[in-house]
Amino acid sequence: MRLPGSVRSRRFVLLALLTAALLLVAAAWTFLRPHAAAQVEARPASHAETVPPTPSPPATPSGPPWRYGRPDARFTVVEYADLECSFCRTYFPVLKRWIDSHPEVNWQWHHLPLTMHEPVASAEARLVECIGETGGPAAFWQAVDWVYARTRGDGQGLPERLRYPDLTPATQQCLDSDRPDATIRTQAAEAARNGVTATPALQLRDRETGRTLLLHGPVEGDALLSALDLISTGAEPSRTPDMPAASIGDMPR
After folding, report:
1. What is the pTM assigned to this prediction?
2. Alpha helix locations (H) across the chain?
């Protein structure tokens, strides 16, 4: 059946309009797509993508010789000390504050129980070593502080019946072994090789230059800084510095 002319005309117009609409949509998509892609590519990265992760602080080595301060510090103060030495007891918190104020320096503990303070000095050294073995570096330094705060000094030792709080079975097992004795003997032998016969004595070490310097007695902060300058620059001291025990004061400088 043939459609009237007016109907065919309307159908033709509608078909033409639909075709034109489709062409417009296609043209618009072709034009807008590159811009949308460019905007996506140009979008700045998020904060999480641009900020590098914060590095973890260096881990503190566990085990003797015990170290306090940053493991990656350039300088090390090796202290040869006796837990019954009254000068060492006075110097302990002073040196700790100074190390806290100088992150470029760390502090390493070496036992040197003096004959005049035996057998108590070695017994206390065994105690703090075993506490460190089972509790780690922080427990070791806490134990040294505990002993110095309570000992009567000069070989008299801790008050009778006073025991370290909360000794664990693992710590007691260490005390019943000869492990701490081996550490103490090794460190005392090293002191003898370095000519150390009294406490406290400090050996300064520069990790970059490999130079060392031995100081006798408690040393003030200014003198420590001067000694570190000596070993870092390669200058030779005219004599080994000695500092009287009464000169330590409040120290950190």
Report:
1. 0.71
2. 5-42, 47-50, 86-101, 120-135, 137-150, 169-175, 179-193, 221-233
